[in-house]
Design brief:
By secondary structure, the chain is mostly helical. The chain contains 15 helices and five strands. The structure holds adenosine-5'-triphosphate (ATP) and magnesium ion. One of its GO terms (cellular component) is cytosol.
Length: 348
């Protein structure tokens, strides 16, 4: 079997990308893309998956394809090095899903904790669209169609990768070695596994409206940071404060480097010293939030500026997506053909 190293990851075009995506997956993708360690990198805009819980709003999904593509280019994904494409343009993915559906039970899908949480968040309890319920299967099709060995994503995707591995294993056992087993690649930094929303909610998510977007203007970023959830019992500056569950400190865990301190808060050497002072009392939320604001502004400014350049030529973005989709389709066609051969359904 081929031992190529291949990356596949995706984002749903349900909104612009946010700093949760950035630390959970995007930043890593750019590093991997530029590392030269991978034979191929596939980056998919998962519009078909977005329709599974937005069937009544195709216009939203359509518009956000461009937004997500702009965010990609702005953070440094490079169409010369990565194949950037649109899921719905690859019909082979539907065909693969159709065959994989026979390898998964309803009760197995019902156990998926991420889907469970998403059903709850969307008030789908009594009205789950079948397409939404089965999206872990279609995700397995996405991953295996491109023979992905490495899937750099956030922690919420762990159950999806487990499901994909089970399908690969079952398929290969029944029909013979055909599909490649993927490995999840989680962020090293614990704070980046699942960045909370600015409201302190467990996950920053487009669908929850608690995001700092990569494209937010400086004033909006600042406003959002100043309104962030901290420790509700830390009322006066001299009060001792809690770090655990304090979203501002979780963001600092995700973004602060020692040289940020040298530049913006030289009275502290590092984050540990800042945390100690906060816990002791005598350090106000506003000072900590201002520090976080400096750091995020510094990180987001070049991204925002590059995005504005790309925004000038949407036709070029669509052309790039078109070219990428043609390349991706070719790769998926090959896998589907192998799959049908293994299943013995290549009749003609
Ligand atoms: P939706 O609410 O529409 O599902 P989302 O904000 O959850 O949107 P996705 O497109 O589902 O975003 O996720 C894209 C990628 O970003 C996945 O790899 C996911 O693990 C990662 N990701 C999403 N939100 C976070 C977060 N808050 N922290 C870390 N990683 C995240
Ligand atoms: Mg999601």
């Amino acid at each position: 079997m081929m031992s190529e190293k291949i990356i596949l990851t995706a984002d749903r075009p349900t909104g612009r990308l946010h700093i949760g995506h950035y630390v959970g997956s995007l930043k890593r993708r750019v590093q991997l893309q530029n590392s030269g360690e991978f034979d191929k990198v596939f980056i998919m805009i998962a519009d078909a998956q977005a329709l599974t819980d937005n069937a009544d709003n195709p216009e939203k999904v359509r518009q956000n394809i461009l937004e997500v593509a702009l965010d990609y280019l702005a953070i440094g994904l490079d169409p010369e090095k990565s194949v950037i494409f649109i899921q719905s343009q690859i019909p082979e993915l539907c065909e693969l899903s159709f065959y994989y559906m026979n390898l998964v039970t309803v009760s197995r899908l019902q156990r998926n904790p991420t889907v469970k949480a998403e059903i709850k968040a969307r008030d789908f309890e009594t009205s789950i669209p079948v397409g939404f319920f089965t999206y872990p299967i279609s995700q397995a099709a996405d991953i295996t169609a491109f023979r992905a060995t490495t899937v750099p994503v956030g922690e919420d995707q762990e159950p999806m990768l487990e499901q994909a591995k089970e399908i690969v294993h079952k398929f290969n056992t029944i029909y013979g070695e055909t599909l490649v087993e993927p490995e999840i690649l989680l962020p090293d930094n614990k704070a980046c596994l699942r960045l909370p929303g600015i409201d302190g909610n467990a996950k920053m998510s487009k669908s929850l409206g608690n995001c700092i977007y990569l494209a937010d203007e400086p004033g909006d970023v600042k406003k959002k940071i100043m309104s962030m959830f901290t420790d509700p019992n830390h009322i006066r500056v001299e009060d001792p404060g809690r770090i655990e569950g304090n979203t501002v400190f979780t963001y600092l865990d995700a973004f602060a480097l020692d040289d940020h301190f040298a530049r913006y808060l030289p009275e502290y050497k590092n984050l540990d010293e800042l945390k100690e002072h906060y816990k002791r009392g005598g350090l106000g939320d506003v000072k900590v939030k201002k520090f976080l604001n400096h750091i995020l502004q510094e990180e987001l400014e070049p991204i925002r500026n590059r995005r504005k350049e790309y925004e000038k030529d949407p036709a070029a973005i669509y052309q790039m997506l078109h070219d990428g989709s043609i390349k991706a389709k070719r790769a998926a066609e090959e896998t589907l053909s192998e799959v049908k051969k293994s299943m013995g359904i290549n009749y003609f």
